Each structure stands twice: as structure tokens, then as C-alpha cells.
Backbone:
């Protein structure tokens, strides 16, 4: 299941809520980076266009937006990011921040969906969001933007050298991860907490390591708690289609037990 | 596409070829680990049951098998590993080693499939196999075994804290990655170099971080260059089905250009 969607709720919750929580000092390897480097910028979160109820799973989320330009981004990535930020000025698009979230003491928030949260406390203290677990430039560099009118989420993605499958190309699992993350974001923005029930990917061409691609996702249909979404991955010039995918997400009920 | 399959060829090539290449000293962050710790064991490679032509993509592969027990493995992982090693004693099963491969100087071997290898030289020098790119215990801990008679590959997998999606559970992309890697191995062992054309995953239940699951994959049908494979992910006691997947792989032709 695209469990990233749940983590991304934290992102969306931040979009709605007041920003300003400073990053904590990095005391151990599990802590998030606090020296973002010369290319990293902190931006104030703005109210989003979330229709669901994307409440945060944690009261102590680390607010270090990792979806902002950093020195590892190449020119294509920066240009696309700037283009979408410009589109966001009139409110038609929204930039969605992304965090290497860390769960600390309070697990109250997650008990609704995770009744065994007490047992997970130790795990959560070490856990990191998978697509953000590799260091800057080595893994998944990405930023997402959502268009609420069209129910579309776009992800600009640059895959680093630690995502290799065949020599010089992205691993299929890395591609699936970004597809999952993008579709999940699109679903969560639309209806709130939802999880992937199925994911069908057609791999058409290999994606070279270090290149930038654009993932376009959209909600095709909603039937009760079911959301049908699709996406494609294209080159920056839109001429090459690398992959296509369809998926089914299910909106979670607050009474749903995940374990 | 499940490009892991190509990387896994290196594994299989080692199974067939003579072992004994010592790990290189770790001079930079890109180098593989050379201090495997008390739980890491080096095993001599044995002749495998590979029917394809799984030639290595590099003449200078680092031979550090990462599919062997290490201190991060929990009891379930160790027990399962030992069970499959025991099954391997009569030759019906084969343990498949796995490497955080590093490409160094020679790219001759990969020119057959990657004509632009020259341009990729820099990328390859930094690249790491995606499922092996996180440090010991934090990401993908896994070992695979293949049964040549039944065309089946089994992967025992323990997901670390950096693979999180929803709090306390594996990210859907991490699950997809291991499915892709296992199916890819099964395909490559059967016919040699092959790549994923499509991957369809049904997520049935969330997988808790740190738990051990078993991925059972098999070749269902072969039609010319097409291979149809399927797999499921179950708990160690086999009572819980976490995910099911089907896939289509295509055997590569030596004349196939990937770019």
C-alpha cells in the first residue's frame, strides 16, 4: 500500500497549520539534518487547498522542508521548481512541503488508526520516511505541487546514484516508490487519509540516473471510499513516456484498525 | 522496470564463477563496507543452477555478500536463513548472494546493453544497488534462495526503520522494491538478462517495521521472450498474506538498446 500517503498527511497538515517550529539539533544519526547548506531555503508554509481531514500523526513533527532546492539539484530540477512556484503565485497550484518526519514522545495522535501505537513507540523513535531516508543528492530528490481544481498532483523528481538498478538507470523499485508517493499525495489531498489498495505499473523505458522526470497524477474517479487514480512519468520536454500507472486507494475510516 | 534483475545478474555470475576477490578498503563514502562485524560471514560461492547467461556487467565487482546474517537480523530472520541454508545442502535450493556493487574502470562488459556507457562512467562510479544503499539494519535486510526445479525464488526480508510509510509500517514503495527485486531474480535465474515490463501489486495488509516476511515468487508461464511471474508476501507463520503481485518480464536481446 502506498503508506507514504499517510506520512504525507503531515506535509498537508503543515500546509494548513501555523509554521514556525524550528528544526531540532542533530544529536544522533537518527536526527534530521540541521545544516541545510547554501542551497537550502526555509519557506513559510501557506494555507493549502486540502478538502480531506489530513491531521498530523504526530505533535512533534520536525519542520525541515526537504522539497526545496539544494545543491544537488541540477538545472532542469531548478527550472521546473521555479516554474511551478510561479504557477503557485495565483493560488491555482500549491507547493507541498515534505519532511523526514520523526516521531518523538507523543503517539496520541496516531492511536486512532494505529491501536498498537504503544508497542511501536521504540520503532517510531528511529523511523524515517522512506523516500527521505537517503542523504541529500544520493537518493530521492523531489518536490510536489497540487492543483485542487483539477485534482492533479505533479512531482518533479531527480533520482540519485543510490537508486540504481541496471547500470546507469533507476531501479524499478525506486520508480514504484515515487509513483506510490505521488499518487498517495494526490489521494490524500483529495479526501484525507487513504491507503493504496492496488498499484499497476507499466514500465516503458528506463530512466537514467541523475535525470529529471515529471510525474503527473490525477484522481480519475471516486466511488464511496474508493479512489481511482492514474499517473505517467515523462521527460522534462514531455516527449518521452517512461512509465504509466493506475491505482486504487481506499479512504480510511477512523475506526479502521491497521493491525 | 525491475532493473534490479540486471544487477542481480552480478550475483548470479558470482555463483557460477570463482570466488576469492577480496573486498577493497573503504576509502570514501561510496565504498562498500569492509568491516562486516561479528555477525557477518564470508561464504565461498558455489556453482549455481543458472540456465540463462547471467554475465557480470563489471569486471571489478566488489565481492562482499550482504545477504548473510548480521547483528541487525532478528531471530525470525536467522531461523529462516538457517532453514533455507539447510535445504540448500542437497542442492535443491541455492542461496543467492547479493552485493552493493561498484563499477570502477571497465565498462566494456556493459556496452552490449548500454551503448552510452561512456557517458555513464561518472554516474556508475558513484552508483549503488538501490536495495543495498541503506546502512546495515536501517533499510532492506534480505536473503534470497532459488529452487531451480520449481522455478521459484524465495526472499526472506526484514524491513528497517528507514523504510517507513505510515507510522510503524513499511512504505508501499519499499514493499514494491522487494517484490520487484525478488521477481527480477526469479526471472533472471530462469532466462538470463530480463527486465520488468509491468508490475501489478495488491496490498492487503500493512507490514510492521522490523518484522520479517517471506516473499514467494515463481515463473508461471514463458512465451518466447515473455515471462509471466507472480509472488505473494506472507508472515513467517504463513497465516497472514500481506501482498500479492503479478508481473511481466521481457528477456533482453543482446542487440537491445536501453537508451
Residues:
Amino acid at each position: 500500500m502506498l503508506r507514504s500517503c499517510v506520512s504525507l498527511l503531515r506535509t498537508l497538515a503543515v500546509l494548513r497549520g501555523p509554521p514556525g517550529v524550528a528544526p531540532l539539533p542533530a544529536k544522533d544519526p537518527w536526527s534530521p539534518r540541521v545544516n541545510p547548506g547554501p542551497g537550502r531555503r526555509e519557506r513559510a508554509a501557506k494555507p493549502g487547498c486540502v478538502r480531506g481531514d489530513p491531521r498530523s500523526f504526530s505533535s512533534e513533527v520536525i519542520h525541515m522542508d526537504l522539497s526545496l532546492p539544494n545543491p544537488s539539484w541540477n538545472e532542469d530540477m531548478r527550472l521546473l521548481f521555479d516554474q511551478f512556484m510561479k504557477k503557485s503565485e495565483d493560488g491555482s497550484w500549491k507547493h507541498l512541503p515534505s519532511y523526514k518526519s520523526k516521531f518523538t514522545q507523543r503517539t496520541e495522535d496516531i492511536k486512532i488508526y494505529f491501536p498498537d501505537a504503544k508497542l511501536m513507540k521504540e520503532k517510531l523513535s528511529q523511523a524515517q520516511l522512506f523516500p527521505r531516508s537517503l542523504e541529500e543528492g544520493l537518493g530521492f530528490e523531489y518536490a510536489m505541487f497540487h492543483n485542487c481544481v483539477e485534482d492533479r498532483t505533479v512531482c518533479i523528481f531527480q533520482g540519485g546514484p543510490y537508486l540504481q538498478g541496471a547500470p546507469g538507470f533507476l531501479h524499478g523499485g525506486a520508480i514504484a516508490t515515487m509513483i506510490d508517493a505521488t499518487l498517495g499525495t494526490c489521494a490524500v489531498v483529495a479526501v484525507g487519509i487513504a491507503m493504496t489498495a492496488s498499484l499497476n505499473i507499466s514500465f516503458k523505458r528506463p530512466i537514467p540516473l541523475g535525470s529529471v522526470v515529471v510525474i503527473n497524477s490525477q484522481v480519475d474517479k471516486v466511488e464511496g471510499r474508493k479512489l481511482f487514480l492514474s499517473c505517467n512519468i515523462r521527460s522534462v520536454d514531455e516527449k518521452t513516456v517512461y512509465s504509466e500507472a493506475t491505482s486504487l486507494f481506499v479512504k480510511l475510516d477512523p475506526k479502521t484498525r491497521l493491525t
User: Anything to note?
Assistant: Chain A touches chain B through 66 residues (CB under 8 Å). The two ends of chain A are 14 Å apart (CA to CA). Helices of chain A lie at 4-16, 75-87, 117-126, 172-191. Residues 172-191 of chain A form the longest helix (20 residues).
